[in-house]
Design goal:
The chain has about 270 residues and is an alpha/beta fold. The chain has 2 domains: about 170 residues, P-loop containing nucleotide triphosphate hydrolases (Rossmann fold); about 70 residues, no CATH class. The chain has 10 helices and 10 strands. A hairpin with a 2-residue loop joins strand 4 and strand 5. The radius of gyration is 18 Å and the shape is globular. It starts with 11 loop residues before the first strand and ends with a helix. Bound molecules: adenosine-5'-triphosphate and magnesium ion. The site of magnesium ion (MG) has 2 residues, from helix 1.
Length: about 270
């Protein structure tokens, strides 16, 4: 289902991104000169402590940095600059070329509607399926691809009838419905138990391998970063202090801050 990126372009390319949130007393520089790329089938994990700017990067990639935010630099999806694109282009891109999974799936799901119709609506809005019947036929497969074990029942359920893990999988099915080139996931497993966490992270791995989906994952969880593999960019105070393969960065940190993060985590485990 996924389209290949234009030749010569990474799927996502972020260059010298700076985001300021103007406040009453002072302006907060949430992101300060961040650059990275993510290619087809690759994963980049933004790792860092609370307030380091991870969510601000993720939201800016979705061109949703917040009303008052001042953004400079560039965010390119294939050949399209998302920071200068118009609202019409962006609404075609969001949901279709970029899928978004948040920590709390409640925001992605309409509490008043069953899961199935929510999925068919997205499929029809982005013209993935013509007509209700064709869209409906795709729903069980989408839910199964998101790791739902009883897709027919889940499709007939309202969000409040699902467990937390099922809700998150329904939200993932929604994010994946249109076969996006890029999946942005912000702490998608923080609210889930350890077993379900691992299953969701492994699901992202399969999407990368089977569909070539690029993944931008935000987490403060070193174990999650390790499980996803790929590359890690360690953030602190809005900057990337270190970047490299997850395996190397987490076992042999090249920056004292990363070493501190790893040590704190190991202490918490003792
Ligand atoms: N809409 C906003 N208005 C003003 N300041 C903001 C806004 N969003 C974020 N900030 C500030 O920007 C900084 C980075 O916040 P961000 O949410 O990106 O951090 P984070 O790394 O995602 O943290 P966490 O792990 O707690 O989710 C923080 O100092 C935060 O207070
Ligand atoms: Mg955050």
């Amino acid at each position: 289902m996924s389209r290949l990126p234009q030749s010569g372009h990474p799927v996502l390319s972020v260059e010298n991104l700076t985001v300021d949130h103007p406040g009453r007393d002072r302006t907060v520089r949430a992101v300060d000169g961040v650059s990275f790329t993510v290619g087809a089938g690759e994963a980049l994990v933004l790792l860092g402590e609370s307030g380091s700017g991870k969510t601000t990067v993720a939201r800016t990639v979705l061109a949703l940095p917040g009303r008052a935010a001042r953004v400079t630099g560039s965010v390119r999806l294939g050949g399209t600059d998302l920071l200068t694109a118009g609202e019409r282009t962006l609404s075609r891109i969001r949901g279709r070329r970029v899928g978004y999974v948040a920590q709390d799936p409640t925001g992605a799901l309409d509490p008043l509607r069953r899961i199935g119709p929510q999925l068919t609506e997205v499929l029809r809005r982005h013209r993935i399926a013509d007509g209700r019947r064709a869209a409906r036929a795709l729903v069980p497969g989408l839910l199964a691809a998101a790791g739902v074990s009883d897709p027919e029942r889940i499709a007939r359920s309202h969000p409040h009838e699902l467990s937390g893990g099922q809700r998150q999988r329904a939200a993932i099915a929604l994010a994946l419905a249109c076969g996006p080139e890029l999946l942005v996931a912000d702490e998608p497993t923080t609210a889930l138990d350890v077993l379900v966490q691992a299953q969701v992270l492994d699901l992202f791995g399969r999407l990368r391998a089977e569909r070539g989906t690029a993944l931008l994952l935000v987490t403060h969880d070193l174990e999650a970063a390790r499980r996803v593999g790929g590359r890690v960019a360690v953030m602190r105070d809005g900057r990337v202090v270190e970047t490299g393969p997850a395996e190397r960065v987490l076992s042999r940190p090249g920056h004292s801050f990363t070493a501190e993060l790893v040590a704190t985590r190991q202490e918490a485990h003792r």
